[in-house]
Every structure is written in structure tokens, then in C-alpha cells.
Amino acid sequence: MKLTFSVIKADIGGYVGHSDTHPEVVNTVRSVVEEEVKKGNLIDMDILTCGDDIAIVMTHTHGVDSEIVHGIAWRAFEKGTEVAKKLKLYGAGQDLLTDAFSGNIKGLGPGVAEMEFEERPSEPVIVFFADKTSPSAWNLPLYEMFADPMNTAGLVIDPKMHDGYTFEVLDVYTGKAVKLSTPAELYDLLALIGSVGKYVVKNVYRNYDGEIAATASTQRLSLMAGQYVGKDDPVMIVRAQSGFPAVGEILEPFARPWIVEGWMRGSHNGPLMPVSFEDARPSRFDGPPRVIAAGYQVAEGKLVGPTDLFKDPAFDKARQSAQDMADILRRQGIFEPHRLPAEEMEYTTLPKILKKLEGRFYDLEEQRLDKDQVLEKEDMD
Ligand code: F6R
Ligand code: MG
Ligand code: MG
User: Domains in the chain, start-ordered, CATH in brackets?
Assistant: First the structure.
């Protein structure tokens, strides 16, 4: 049986501000999706939250991009939005960019990560979910999980992993994608995905047999909406064990926090902090950005779990480092490199401010020349 594992997420209202979700909204979303399991449209479902975002995890046999499954998520988010509006939650319904669902939820605001596979005798799957950052936050850990033998010993030791993995990379501005096979094209891959504002990893496939290993949401809300309406807080699905990286190899990149785009007003660089489900409530300077990891065993499509994988003292040091990095960056205040570079600020509300100053700029060199001419004239007099 071909199983589809879908994760669809949206921010449909923050409680309080952009920091958390409200239980009434989450329960409303849950009950809409639960009904669909009862009706037999889905095999199983779960709800995850991270900061002000809600992710619907669904297993089914309708394949990726299914109108049925996307429609379920859309209706659940619509119902949740009604509750969020009633409670006047912050930015209620902000990620539903249209009133009309037209068969596919992509491009309408929510983030989507889906993969289809034949369920293995045992199928461990991890769902990563981050808030106050963007889809390119996964570029670095995906490289380490699937292409760096210093992180993933299995690349050297496991015969099914030894041929490496192929990364599908999307240019978020043109919508064009390219597939690069590692280890052969590793440096080409890194030449692209180091540019986190432009390139994001969409899928990773195992070279041994072409099996899908990982998939991420790559939607950029600011590009779709044409203005800043909130960050595109991403989700990612990664399969583990038996020819895929072990759970511990998949989690290992998060033990050393790195800097991602997002944080306050989607306009700052900050450390990605791995946290337990209950600590996924960004508050300091609306952050720092954080990530949860939900582990499931899939059994005949049923979701056994989740376990809260970052709820482990072994990640305490990462959390502390992230705090230290946050302090260093905060010292910069509104100055780069804490604040994002100018090109990235184009998709925020900053251009509105800069527009006001446009007419007030003058040519400094010309003004100096004018002054010199006046002085010369005075000398002659
Ligand atoms: C970041 C985020 C928040 C808001 C900030 C200002 O992704 O959502 O940091 O950008 O709280 O929000 P507004 O402009 O809605 O007051
Ligand atoms: Mg928000
Ligand atoms: Mg969010």
C-alpha cells in the first residue's frame, strides 16, 4: 500500500501577539480533521503547534497534492479562524490569503510538506516544525543529515546510504528547481544552498533506490502575498533508520545551533533553538526562532506517537548556546548583521518607510561644486 504522509501548517491567529496558539482554536482544527478520520477520508491525524503556528499531520492514500486532503486542511483552518476571530486573536486568519479554496492549498498561504512511500516493516518518521524563521532554515541541517559523514556515520558505514543522496533545490524567486547528487556534486549543492535567501531544499532522495528521504515546505508567504504578512514558519518530514540516517543522526545538527533568518518582524538573524513541545513559545524579542521534533512510528498508516525528541537534557547545551548567540546578536540592535541585509528587507514593511525619504536625497558632490563656485566669485569681487 502506498501511504501519503502530509503535513500542512498555518498561522491563523496568535495568542498573545505572535507567541503562541490558543487551545480553543487548536481544538477546533483538531475536531474538523478528526471527523475526516471517522469518515474514512484519512487513516490518521495529529496536531502539532510551534509558536503561533498549527500543523495538521495526516496519513492517507490519496497521494500528494490531493484535493481531498488539502480541502480538509483548508476547512479546518477556516473553522479555526472563525474561533480566532471571535477571540480577536492576533492576526486571525492571516495565512489564509484567499476566501476561496480552489483544489490545492499551495499558493494560498499555508505551508505544505508531503511524501508518498511504501510503508517499511518499521517506519520511523520525524516531523520538524519551526517558528519565527523561513524554509531555508532546513538547508544546513539537511546537508549535515544527508551529505556530511562527520555528522552522519551511516554515509560511510551503511551500504544503502553509501551511494549518497540527491537534493532537489528550489530557487524561490523563479520557481525553478535543480537536482544535485551528493557526494559527487556536493560543492555545487553548497554553492547554492548557502544562499539562504534564494535557495531552499525541497526534497532529498536516496541514490541507492530513489526512495524519498525528506521533504520540506518551501512556500514563501511574502512572495505570495507581495508584502510581509508573517514569516513562512516551515515544516519538514524526515524518514529515519534502515538505510536512512538514524534518529540520532537526524537530530545531531540541532545540537549545535546556527543562525537563521526570521525572529522579530521576520527581519533579523537569530539562532534556531531546539525545544520541547511545551517550550515552543517564542517570547524574547518575539523569539529566538525555535524548532520542535515530533517522532512517530507509522503502523499501517496509523501514527504511533509522537515522542517529543528535543525533550532531552542532551539538548540543554544547545539551548544555552542559542541564548548566548542571541545575546551577542541582540547587542547589534537594528544594525546588520543582526537585522537582515537590504535585499531581504524588500519583503518587509521597511520600503514604506524608505519611500518617504526618497525625494529628500540630493547630490552631495554637486552641492559642493555650487559652493566652490560661490567662493570663487566672492574672491573675484
Ligand atoms: C515574526 C513575527 C513578529 C511580528 C511582530 C510585529 O515573524 O510574526 O515578530 O512581526 O510582532 O507584528 P505587527 O507588525 O503585527 O505588530
Ligand atoms: Mg504570527
Ligand atoms: Mg509563526
Answer: 1-118 (3.30.70), 121-368 (no CATH)
Q: Angle 23-39/67-86 helices, nearest 10 degrees?
A: 150
- Counting ligand 1 atoms within 8 A of each CB, the residue from 264, 290, 344 with the most, and so the one to mutate, is 264
**Amino acid identity, position 179:** K
Q: How far is CA 263 from CA 9, 13, 131, 141, 268, in A?
A: 18, 17, 8, 19, 5
Ligand in nearest proximity to the CA of 261: 1
Pairwise CA distance, residues 330 & 268, whole Å: 10
Q: Tell me the CA–centroid distance for residue 53 and ligand 2, in Å.
A: 7
Q: Answer whether 215's CB lies under 8 Å from 114's CB.
A: yes
pLDDT digit string (tens) for 6-51?
A: 999 999 999 999 999 999 999 999 999 999 999 999 999 999 999 9
Residue to probe by mutation, ligand 1, list 18, 347, 348, most atoms within 8 Å of CB: 18
pLDDT in tens, 243-299: 999 999 999 999 999 999 999 999 999 999 999 999 999 999 999 999 999 999 999
Ligand 1 atom 15 nearest Cα: 91
